[in-house]
Amino acid sequence: MTSPKTIQQLLDLGGRTAVVTGGAGFLGTAMSATFAELGANVVIASRDQDKCRRRCEELAARLEQPVRFAAHQLDLLDRDSIDRLVAAVVDEFGGIDILVNNAWSGNKNTWESIDDHDWEYDINMSLNSVFRMIKASFETLKERRGVILNITSMYGHVAPDYRLYDGKQFANPPSYGAAKAGVLQFTRYLASFLSPHGIRVNALSPGAYPHPPTRAHTGFVERLCAKNPLGRLGEPEDLKGAVALLCSDAGSYITGQNLCVDGGWAVW
Prior knowledge:
single chain; alpha/beta; 9 helices; about 15% strand
């Protein structure tokens, strides 16, 4: 019988490669930093390759131990772009051990303002792109018995309180929660059907984590905080422990789950 691993050994990601879509963004930067701090090679991918490159340089400068970074351009609405990313990572790093589907973009919309174009864009970006990324990465994840982490939202499993959202400026689009709910069910499906290949699949639901420009609007922020049992907004660093758990051997017996990092938002 082998000796039990320490928590440090379970969390160690040395020699593994993590791909983070939207990895240079507000929440994605903290996720990318988590993998680098645990020793993994980190591939940051988004539409803005220059931003990805800057984020790689910033993270590398903060680390005490050297890890490999790569910045790649990625358009999640373009299957060829996804295929190119996966091929480049396999060529440069040998494969993908951890895939984090985090990227998102979309328009602010109310029920009254949303149209077919915005609805279809949001479903394509938030749900269909997750399918495409996982489908394209399946062979390398299967070869390396990898891990998939899908970033969803509290609004994938609870409804927005309409009283919080006053007008289009702070609106939560109906398409957003619908897509994220789809990702949660897709996560459970994959956890079942990919388990014979040794692939673990989980979801992480943040909330509420408004971007910095939104945080300048004190009235809206006060309403969000009052809705939350912990009485504050989420900070990107609040996600790091959950990401580390679900993507490392510390979470090796966890699959098909949705971990809510939301300050208790949904408990009342």
